[in-house]
């Protein structure tokens, strides 16, 4: 971390001047090209939601968008050793222990949400919210019934019907309605716009009116409609962002412990090893970025993920191929950090990500141990109030690592924020373990045996090669499923 923090401290002044200059150049170019298009309106309907409908008027952006379809980009499980091998234990009794994959291109979003084992007959409309251009239409048609409607029986068929009559083309069976043009652009003026009410409402509760947003803010706000933490508000299952107290992990935890509980949102699931009432975090890229070095400096998501590119010989467009900025360091990072070579920048990012992943493995191990320790408290008959106390620390520990683990940059968007949150997480998990040790000592439990059993069960999960079967090894006779105990 020391290395990272000292980055840029040399030649800071020179850097700032060159950065201001390059920003000025970028915005000057953008302005002049935008100006040409300014009084143009498209021939499209204001209600247009098909991606293919934009092809004729915007062939270059459409062509760029098609690059999100890359056939070699197959779904990859996060459960492998190098990524997060503890997840099948940590999410036990919840869909995320069954299947959890790395992200893919926007054009695959509908396909991926339908195909995953996690969506089933109990899934609701809210699951489609960040996947399809059809969503604003469905919300218009169905009102608040959209959120809680049956995903399989109502939302998927209605979504597909909106694309009916459209040929299956290079975007595949559902790509013409996957995250696309109308999610971020007004089809008539092509101005950036917000289409998801959850974002507008959450910002309003923080006193921010998104209709007044600057052009630069909009370059991040369009992404913040989806790349955020959310939960299903219990009354009508509406997608809601827990932002009333701020965007940091501690602010969101405070929200869940107060406003969340008050409105009846107790937990996402009950863990079957420890019986703890758990919260699941979702991809908070916007939140982590917002108080990281780039968010604080006003560097937008699009600056790094949608660089300008020359196509068709000379024309300059905004790339619509969302992926890793590290595939194009020259047009992303080096537009501002021109004093650093490509390899230096790559190395910075790799260093951040490596130390981040090391810390993540460590903090998740504390969380795993806490679950098994509390499991032993339950089977050994420790006092109920002490079990509950320990379970609360497990819940806390889990949310503080999960916010960071679910964030997809592996620490880059906010290196320090990630480390701080993981430290809070480890402290909470260790607090749960301390409570367990106190009680188990009174009950004269054999700690050598406990440790050995724990090591064995963890290794059995690691060694299972089929990601879909890993979760089946996370409980055994020594560490039984505590929810089944209660039923007996
Ligand atoms: C996730 C949001 C998002 C989606 C989806 C999206 N765009 Fe964009 N688009 C942007 C952003 C951000 C810019 C840059 C705007 C700016 O800075 O003024 C942009 C710019 C543009 C421009 C202005 C010219 C240029 O290249 O900068 C056009 C035209 C455009 N997009 C067309 C499309 C088309 C066609 C689609 C669908 C195939 C699409 N966009 C999908 C976010 C999006
Ligand atoms: C309507 C919701 C939505 C919007 C708006 C949106 N995204 Fe996404 N994004 C997603 C989803 C969902 C995925 C994962 C898709 C999958 O794995 O099937 C994703 C994936 C990604 C990925 C990973 C791609 C890969 O190949 O792994 C990047 C990078 C990304 N988005 C960046 C952005 C940026 C930058 C913006 C704003 C300019 C943005 N997104 C706007 C929903 C959205
Ligand atoms: C200063 C540049 C920068 C900014 C600003 C930035 N990102 Fe990133 N982002 C990165 C880098 C670097 C990575 C890691 C890429 C890698 O590992 O190859 C990344 C990773 C991601 C990923 C995961 C991509 C994948 O392939 O799985 C998503 C999604 C994402 N960013 C979304 C966002 C969103 C949304 C914003 C704005 C709220 C944002 N980023 C702001 C540089 C940036
Ligand atoms: C639009 C301009 C811009 C882009 C693009 C950009 N940066 Fe930055 N970067 C900044 C600014 C501004 C800061 C904050 C400077 C400071 O506080 O010293 C910064 C800070 C950093 C830092 C230091 C963070 C810290 O905690 O001290 C690193 C590392 C970094 N950038 C790497 C990258 C990488 C890698 C990319 C490409 C993925 C990138 N930047 C893209 C403008 C940019």
TrEMBL record:
Subcellular localization, as worded in the UniProt entry: Cell envelope
Coiled coil (UniProt feature): 433-460
Cleavable signal peptide: 1-30
GO molecular function, one term: nitrite reductase (cytochrome, ammonia-forming) activity
PANTHER family linked to this entry: CYTOCHROME C-552 (PTHR30633:SF0), CYTOCHROME C-552 RESPIRATORY NITRITE REDUCTASE (PTHR30633)
Keyword Iron (UniProt): yes
UniProt keyword annotations, A-Z: Calcium, Coiled coil, Heme, Iron, Metal-binding, Oxidoreductase, Signal
Name of the protein in its database record: nitrite reductase (cytochrome; ammonia-forming)
UniProt-listed Gene3D superfamilies: Butyryl-CoA Dehydrogenase, subunit A, domain 3, Flavocytochrome C3, Chain A
GO CC field: outer membrane-bounded periplasmic space
GO BP term, example: anaerobic electron transport chain
PROSITE patterns in alphabetical order: PROKAR_LIPOPROTEIN (PS51257)
Top EC class of this enzyme: oxidoreductase
């Amino acid at each position: 971390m020391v290395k990272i923090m000292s980055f840029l401290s040399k030649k800071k002044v020179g850097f700032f001047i060159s950065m201001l200059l390059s920003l000025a150049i970028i915005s000057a170019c953008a302005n002049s090209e935008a100006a040409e298009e300014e009084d143009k309106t498209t021939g499209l309907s204001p209600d247009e939601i098909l991606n293919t409908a934009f092809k004729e008027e915007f062939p270059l952006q459409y062509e760029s968008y098609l690059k999100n379809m890359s056939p070699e980009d197959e779904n990859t499980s996060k459960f492998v050793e190098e990524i997060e091998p503890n997840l099948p234990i940590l999410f036990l009794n919840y869909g995320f222990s069954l299947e959890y994959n790395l992200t893919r291109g926007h054009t695959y979003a509908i396909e991926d949400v339908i195909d995953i084992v996690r969506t089933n007959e109990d899934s609701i409309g809210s699951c489609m919210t960040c996947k399809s251009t059809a969503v604003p239409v469905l919300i218009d048609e169905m009102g608040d019934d959209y959120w809680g409607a049956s995903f399989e029986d109502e939302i998927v068929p209605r979504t597909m019907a909106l694309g009916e009559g459209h040929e299956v083309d290079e975007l595949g069976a559902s790509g013409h309605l996957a995250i696309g043009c109308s999610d971020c652009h007004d089809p008539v003026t092509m101005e950036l716009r917000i289409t998801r009410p959850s974002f507008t409402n959450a910002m309003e509760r923080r006193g921010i009116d998104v209709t007044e947003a600057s052009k630069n803010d909009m370059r991040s706000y369009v992404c913040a409609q989806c790349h955020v933490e959310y939960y299903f508000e219990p009354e009508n299952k509406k997608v809601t962002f827990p932002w009333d107290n701020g965007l940091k992990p501690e602010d969101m935890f405070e929200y869940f412990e107060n406003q969340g509980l008050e409105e009846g949102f107790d937990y996402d699931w009950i863990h079957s090893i420890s019986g703890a009432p758990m919260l699941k975090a979702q991809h908070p890229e916007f939140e982590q970025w917002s108080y990281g070095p780039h968010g604080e400096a006003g560097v937008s998501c699009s600056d790094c993920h949608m660089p300008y590119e020359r196509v068709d010989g000379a024309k300059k467009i905004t790339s619509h191929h969302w992926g890793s900025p590290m595939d194009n360091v020259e047009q992303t990072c080096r537009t501002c950090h021109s004093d650093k070579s490509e390899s230096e920048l790559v190395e910075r990012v790799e260093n951040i990500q490596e130390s981040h992943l090391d810390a993540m493995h460590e903090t998740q191990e504390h969380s795993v141990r806490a679950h098994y320790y509390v499991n032993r408290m339950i089977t050994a008959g420790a006092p109920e109030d002490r079990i509950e106390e320990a379970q609360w620390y497990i819940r806390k520990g889990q949310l503080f690592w999960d916010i960071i683990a679910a964030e997809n940059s592996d620490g880059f968007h906010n290196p320090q924020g990630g480390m701080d949150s993981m430290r809070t997480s480890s402290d909470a998990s260790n607090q749960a373990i301390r409570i367990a040790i106190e009680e188990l000592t009174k009950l004269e439990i054999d700690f050598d045996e406990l440790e050995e059993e724990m090591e064995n069960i963890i290794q059995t999960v690691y060694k299972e090669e089929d990601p879909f079967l890993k979760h089946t090894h996370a409980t055994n006779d020594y560490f039984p499923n505590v929810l089944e105990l209660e039923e007996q």
